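Lab meeting, item 3. Inverse folding demo.
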């Protein structure tokens, strides 16, 4: 079943990475991902990020790009992916449980800290 979901997401241009009963869909710009866990009759989705996030913020900032805009775009793409997961789950009568808010809030908090550090 997890491989079916991974194939479904690939058809929409995402690049899912499957680990046992978990899929991670990484953003193309930032080391941020949507994590999808399958449980009996339920699918949990959450947002996470890797330890390289600050380094990537530095690279984006050094190139003159807007770090805040990059984060907003990444969250938008991952939310789009989460909605596709929901669509796939509903077609199989599975319940989708979104836990996106916590990961998004943590990511935005790190972004705020980063921007404050630049302004000091």
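The presenter then showed the designed sequence:
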């Amino acid at each position: 079943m997890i491989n079916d979901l991974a194939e479904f997401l690939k058809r929409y241009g995402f690049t899912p990475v499957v680990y046992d009963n978990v899929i991670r869909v990484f953003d193309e710009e930032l080391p941020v991902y949507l994590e999808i866990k399958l449980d009996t009759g339920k699918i949990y989705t959450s947002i996470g990020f890797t330890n390289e996030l600050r380094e990537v913020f530095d690279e984006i900032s050094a190139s003159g790009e807007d770090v805040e805009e990059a984060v907003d775009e990444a969250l938008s793409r991952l939310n789009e992916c989460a909605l596709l997961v929901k669509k796939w789950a509903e077609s199989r009568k599975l319940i989708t449980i979104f836990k996106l808010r916590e990961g998004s809030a943590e990511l935005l908090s790190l972004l705020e800290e980063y921007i404050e550090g630049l302004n000091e």
